[in-house]
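FORM 7B: Structural annotation worksheet

SECTION A. Query
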Amino acid sequence: MRGELLLVTGASGMIGLHTVRRAVAEGYRVRAMIRPSSDRSVFSGLPVELVTADLAHPGTLESAVADVEVVVHAAAHIGDWGPVDEYRRINVVGLEHLITCCARQKTLRRFIHISTLGVYPGRDHYGTDETLPPDLKGLDGYTRTKAEAEVLLQHHIRHFGFPAVILRPGFVYGPGERHSIPRVIENLLAGRLKFIGDGLKVLNNTYVGNLVDAIFLAIDHPQAVGETFNIRDARLVTRQEYINTIADYFGQPHPPRVPLWLAKLAVGPIEGWARLIGRKSPPILTRARLKFMALNLDFSIEKARRILGYEPRVDFRDGIRETLDWAAKNLPVAQIVRALQK
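SECTION B. Predicted structure
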């Protein structure tokens, strides 16, 4: 709604920054919540109020949420490796403090929580919808604590009437993506990337612009409050299309394959050894990466279509080209790309 004060947490991240830009274009007064270490230059030229706050420090949150009418909570501790408590400190405890602060604001009318399709059990999915409850065991600290966060938020929705909407995107890609795709590019260019299995199962790809469309539909739709929605692209792509598109973009050969049975056999010992030696970064294969590269991740978006009127506008072919163009110009992999082009 034009003129309302809209707060975006995690505003300097990919999802947050795209949300900030759309909110400005829609006529909101925008407050961007960033940490002291965040890159402020990404907001250059945008008429936004920057507020420094951190979910790990509850005392900083009151000023961030003062008088807000809409909150888009995109901040999270992400990744697929590390102690669960590190994720829980931000994704659950930090969320609880944020909810408490927001609940004190009599102006608040909508709280959009960005969750993940990773809260579902780590198995093959074929049209799974929101009636399946989140898996509180999780494959890693991120998915486990995002499931816990949903349980916490649902408690506040049911018992205190907190005006929240939960959106569950899949693998989010687009300009500004600094985690999954850069890792794929680096491993591909270094010759380390391999398909697991035949590469024919689908990925839960979600272009960031499609997700932002869903965010703004959820902000204004009266029937959205208290609901949870799966969000993804209209057309899901196989791992072959995903990886080979990136390989073709950089002029690289398509990766070879590793049998799925071998990867399943190896992942336990690889993770176990990495934990035993206290490895800080994830090993070459984790259960989360096995899921990302090998499981069928088809989740239904019929509920979002029916209630929100969500219809993904951008296809993977166009979204991934935009993403790779950005990555080739802005990420460290650009140095490798330039070397390959000489």
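SECTION C. Observations
Residues 84-103 form the longest helix (20 residues). Residues 98 and 138 are 23 Å apart (CA to CA).

SECTION D. Sign-off
Analyst initials: ____
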